[in-house]
Amino acid sequence: MAALSMLACFVAVLLCIRTSRTDTKEDEINPSQSTSATSQHRTDSLTILMLLGLLLLTILTVWLFKHRRFRFVHETGLSMIYGLIVGAIIRYTSKPMDVSRDYVRAKIISENHSYYTDNAPTALYVSFFARNSSADPTIRQYDLGAPVDEPITEPPLERTVTFDPEIFFNVMLPVIIFEAGYSMKRRHFFRNLGAILMYAVVGTTASCLVVGGILYGTTRLMHDITFSLNDCFYFGAVISATDPVTVLALFNDLHVDVDLYAIVFGESVLNDAVAIVLSESVEVYGELSSDSFNTEALFQSVGKFLGVFTGAFAIGSLFGLSTAFLTKFTKLKDFPLLETALFFLMSYASFQAAEAAEFTGIVAVLFCGVTQAHYTYNNLSAESKDRTKKLFELANFLAENFVFLYIGVSVFTLQPLQWHLGFILSSFLAIVVGRFINIYPLSFLLNLGRSNKIRPNFQHMMMFSGLRGAVAFALAIRNTETEAHQHMASATLMIVIVTVILCGGFTTPMLQWLQIRVGVEEDAPGQMNQLASVRNQGGGENGQQPGSTPSEKAWLVAKWYNFDTIVMKPLLTNHRPTLIETLPKCCLPIAKIFTTEEQLTQGLGGPTDHDSDTDMIIDENQLSIGGMSDHSQLDQASVSPNHQTGRKEPLQFDDGDLGQFEADDKPLTP
Amino acid sequence: MAALSMLACFVAVLLCIRTSRTDTKEDEINPSQSTSATSQHRTDSLTILMLLGLLLLTILTVWLFKHRRFRFVHETGLSMIYGLIVGAIIRYTSKPMDVSRDYVRAKIISENHSYYTDNAPTALYVSFFARNSSADPTIRQYDLGAPVDEPITEPPLERTVTFDPEIFFNVMLPVIIFEAGYSMKRRHFFRNLGAILMYAVVGTTASCLVVGGILYGTTRLMHDITFSLNDCFYFGAVISATDPVTVLALFNDLHVDVDLYAIVFGESVLNDAVAIVLSESVEVYGELSSDSFNTEALFQSVGKFLGVFTGAFAIGSLFGLSTAFLTKFTKLKDFPLLETALFFLMSYASFQAAEAAEFTGIVAVLFCGVTQAHYTYNNLSAESKDRTKKLFELANFLAENFVFLYIGVSVFTLQPLQWHLGFILSSFLAIVVGRFINIYPLSFLLNLGRSNKIRPNFQHMMMFSGLRGAVAFALAIRNTETEAHQHMASATLMIVIVTVILCGGFTTPMLQWLQIRVGVEEDAPGQMNQLASVRNQGGGENGQQPGSTPSEKAWLVAKWYNFDTIVMKPLLTNHRPTLIETLPKCCLPIAKIFTTEEQLTQGLGGPTDHDSDTDMIIDENQLSIGGMSDHSQLDQASVSPNHQTGRKEPLQFDDGDLGQFEADDKPLTP
């Protein structure tokens, strides 16, 4: 009933928009600046209202599905479908309208002579002359921004529904990506770090090259569209960003195998960062070389890739570490609201700082999120832990649904788009091949060194779960200036829609068909024992990280863990062991400065090996509302105590995994 | 130490901005579209970073003050002072720069002949001609928006720091005002409803007229500035909005007398709404009459006032009631994230709906907040109650501090401003007289009918606490087109700064000097007994509401409470009594439809007269971090159990105050 009444309201809003547009038309007969501004404002409000209505409808439908235990469509898919329907309605019911009369046609001229330019101007100075007077004109400045770039007969409503892609980059994506980083504090993530880095960095680059290559080949065969080599690799980078949202929500729901979960999750989050930086590097290459191969440009773009990635990593981590430092050494904890505000502002500042330094804000925010989760979270008061979790969870939910809703609407309203069936089909082919090259050969290589092999059914599932989502869409619509980019945007739209609906919908049957076990509790005793036995088997340094490749990688990871345990965590968090315990005696004066009283009185009652990765930022059941639903219905009891534990013992510390390192470190402690 | 290191970072950012500006200058030598866009983006990021840095600095300083128990400066005052300092640095260290070369000067011409316009254009079509070719030019559309309207030699940094006032109206103010409405669920507020409405509606209108009148008189004496009668009343409306933030934070801190608190709080929140609508009505009057008195225009503007107020009230309440309805009749409660998202989206939709219907969004959002608190809050799951509280608390904290920071920066960077000492001084005189007329005569009238008199020392305190803040500032900078409006903006800025710093700083001494008792616990037994005895004294209908005027008002309020208890609350919330119990027997079938099972099984264990106004949305100690600080330090124990109670008994119901009505209603219930 509620959903029905909601639907009625929604239809009313849509009717309102139609009426409002008729009003606008009447206004035009008597053109007046303030009237047209008012009616524009009204249309904007109605558009936002429509999107809000769609979001509300999605929420109610999702609730209905969950309530009836109908698990075929995920909420993001649903948002997209609603968006598609409304986009189609807007597109096919609106008649082209004349442009409002008080728009002024202008030809750009300079002071005295006509001035023809092919650079878009960034500001306009208009001289206003007083009527029947020879007084000096008043000059007013207008900011121009990017051209709206539309045929004049286009219906205004479509234009208002299409909004600035920069909103995705500056508001929606940072939220989604930060949340992904903040929820990455998972033991299984770090256990599979080697594999994840391999898939995300090497795999994504390979996928970019393969997709670019295939499309370069196929577009040579199509004579009606022109794609440069650079365009092809740009598209390869854009479309290689896989989406962490939909499949993982279902994995959560079904409690799929934890290693599979960690690998798919880690890969899809990190490869967004890789794809964003890759696409920027390809652009740099394109600017430097003009369609012929250019070694210098290649090195410069590789340099750009490394520079931007390192820079963003450094800035993101720096802001995260500063927050940890501030929360440890001030008693900000006494005022949880101030603490949460600090946390929020520092995280957002990492984004803006990276943008100001001309690195990529989104990548910085990802690493800032990881650092905040790994260090700062341990210092926060119980209230701030709870508040930050809930705040980012809600923001992420809204941003995600908004993005997918907007993807749906865009299919019909985004201008300019070019549709070419051949190109779209060949890009489908290309991403399948690209994904294949990413998964199977790399898995083979990884398995050579892994004691805990990535089984074939896991590989098939990873192949299947390479759907594209928000990041690919945002990258594709960011630049639609050339015809090639307009083709890319339409192909990306189709790929996102098809993969989200198909792969999202068939995840459950696929898991059954591949016989991947579900219903695994992360910390089930059996699992733990199995884990312990794997650990005990590993003797030397190589064996310590059963989930990563041996040789250099494992050694590097082990060294880092060592450093993290001895220096970073004692320095940056309020937990035992303190620096006094971990550093050699000669460093005692320095160690004392960086050890707080709280840290000394902490955890004296018992052993400090309680693993706070079980007290994850985003519990397994909270990553998506999908998971939450089941818990709140099925085992509410098991969630609440967990929650309570989090509140009563907020000062847990994750070194359960690091037990073996601590044993190694014993000689170092006093 | 932390604050020091923060300061170092901040200086680094400021230096960066200066460097970046030098970079921009260098870029100009080689003008290029993409370079200038990049450097603009970089300057924007640096500006945001600077504001974030200031906010962080404010947070750390506030923490330091609280930590050292230094209570003279409130955080909003502090934000403002930091803003002033940085604004001054920006203003007096930056040299005027030439405009970037790739700006294009244009004269508006139509197809064939020059076209002089005094209406600002809303869009620009630029013809791009291919060089050395006779092909048709490409026409691209640019949206113009409002003119930036600045002398060309102004330094660009000042322009970027000055951002669109519409952000205040569409982002910051809705948050602040919604939070005010959402925290209004206070018994003492409703007990003093009559007085609050009197001060807010009658008082604000009187203040607007008095201020307008005085300024009309004084501006006749100043020959160097021109103010129309309409300008004067517009300023009267703008400057009559008092600010709820600063004084109330201190009242909270000190646990000042609850009735005084309720009256000051209620007045300052409601009068924002009144002032906003008043200023719009004055604008309507100005458009219709041209500076001579016009009866028709007067009636139309009064009609506009009533229409907008009623419309906004209706839309806000409607959205609030719909949310209550949805949360009661769906089991959305099982999925707290969905529930919170619904709550958030419905509240924001009320803003956009009112804007689309051409009422005032901010007023709608206020009433939406009140309705959400009064009905919806009771239906929410414990988790959503907690989450919505924390979300809006944080958003409010950030918005408030941002606004006051920005007020500080604006003094030096807002362009265009006109400064006139005589006008500023006379406006100070006018607001003091206006406040005097608002408080004393109305208090006298109110006391005629109140059994619980508003004592003279309360009246003096109300007089003193009429500081101006965010709303007045936002209204004043919204329109700075004419010279008169530029004078208003500068006068408003000065009034805001002086009243926030002076009145904010001297609240504590003033309370002592006026011998107003502090340290009052809202539900202290003595207080309750006193309350009860006042109640028992009142015999007839007039006596039932000791805190409001008798005769019609009390009767109306009583009738509303009656209706609320018998129909609205049973219909819209999940609490006892149900409609089955409150409605007459003939309505039983309807009553059954609107009664949920949860409602029937609810509260059978005990009496339902537990007063949930003690479980307020924003507890006394949460309205500002000021209050929270004391609690978390002094009586943490007393906060935690409260919190726990909220979680364990989330389904309380506020009818403690309505006991006497229920007694009256007995004959109606089956």
From TrEMBL, chains A, B:
<dbReference type="InterPro" id="IPR002090">
    <property type="entry name" value="NHE-6/7/9"/>
</dbReference>
<feature type="transmembrane region" description="Helical">
    <location>
        <begin position="305"/>
        <end position="326"/>
    </location>
</feature>
<dbReference type="GO" id="GO:0015385">
    <property type="term" value="F:sodium:proton antiporter activity"/>
</dbReference>
<feature type="transmembrane region" description="Helical">
    <location>
        <begin position="489"/>
        <end position="507"/>
    </location>
</feature>
<keyword id="KW-0967">Endosome</keyword>
<keyword id="KW-1003">Cell membrane</keyword>
<keyword id="KW-1133">Transmembrane helix</keyword>
<dbReference type="Pfam" id="PF00999">
    <property type="entry name" value="Na_H_Exchanger"/>
</dbReference>
<dbReference type="GO" id="GO:0005886">
    <property type="term" value="C:plasma membrane"/>
</dbReference>
<dbReference type="GO" id="GO:0055038">
    <property type="term" value="C:recycling endosome membrane"/>
</dbReference>
<dbReference type="GO" id="GO:0051453">
    <property type="term" value="P:regulation of intracellular pH"/>
</dbReference>
<feature type="transmembrane region" description="Helical">
    <location>
        <begin position="77"/>
        <end position="94"/>
    </location>
</feature>
<keyword id="KW-0915">Sodium</keyword>
<feature type="compositionally biased region" description="Polar residues">
    <location>
        <begin position="630"/>
        <end position="644"/>
    </location>
</feature>
<feature type="transmembrane region" description="Helical">
    <location>
        <begin position="46"/>
        <end position="65"/>
    </location>
</feature>
<feature type="transmembrane region" description="Helical">
    <location>
        <begin position="196"/>
        <end position="216"/>
    </location>
</feature>
<dbReference type="InterPro" id="IPR018422">
    <property type="entry name" value="Cation/H_exchanger_CPA1"/>
</dbReference>
<feature type="transmembrane region" description="Helical">
    <location>
        <begin position="167"/>
        <end position="184"/>
    </location>
</feature>
<keyword id="KW-0050">Antiport</keyword>
<dbReference type="GO" id="GO:0015386">
    <property type="term" value="F:potassium:proton antiporter activity"/>
</dbReference>
<feature type="transmembrane region" description="Helical">
    <location>
        <begin position="398"/>
        <end position="417"/>
    </location>
</feature>
<keyword id="KW-0739">Sodium transport</keyword>
<keyword id="KW-0472">Membrane</keyword>
<feature type="transmembrane region" description="Helical">
    <location>
        <begin position="359"/>
        <end position="377"/>
    </location>
</feature>
<feature type="signal peptide">
    <location>
        <begin position="1"/>
        <end position="22"/>
    </location>
</feature>
<keyword id="KW-0812">Transmembrane</keyword>
<keyword id="KW-0406">Ion transport</keyword>
<keyword id="KW-0732">Signal</keyword>
<protein>
    <recommendedName>
        <fullName>Sodium/hydrogen exchanger</fullName>
    </recommendedName>
</protein>
<dbReference type="InterPro" id="IPR004709">
    <property type="entry name" value="NaH_exchanger"/>
</dbReference>
<dbReference type="InterPro" id="IPR006153">
    <property type="entry name" value="Cation/H_exchanger_TM"/>
</dbReference>
<feature type="domain" description="Cation/H+ exchanger transmembrane">
    <location>
        <begin position="57"/>
        <end position="513"/>
    </location>
</feature>
<keyword id="KW-0813">Transport</keyword>
<feature type="transmembrane region" description="Helical">
    <location>
        <begin position="423"/>
        <end position="446"/>
    </location>
</feature>
<feature type="region of interest" description="Disordered">
    <location>
        <begin position="626"/>
        <end position="670"/>
    </location>
</feature>
<dbReference type="GO" id="GO:0098719">
    <property type="term" value="P:sodium ion import across plasma membrane"/>
</dbReference>
<comment type="similarity">
    <text>Belongs to the monovalent cation:proton antiporter 1 (CPA1) transporter (TC 2.A.36) family.</text>
</comment>
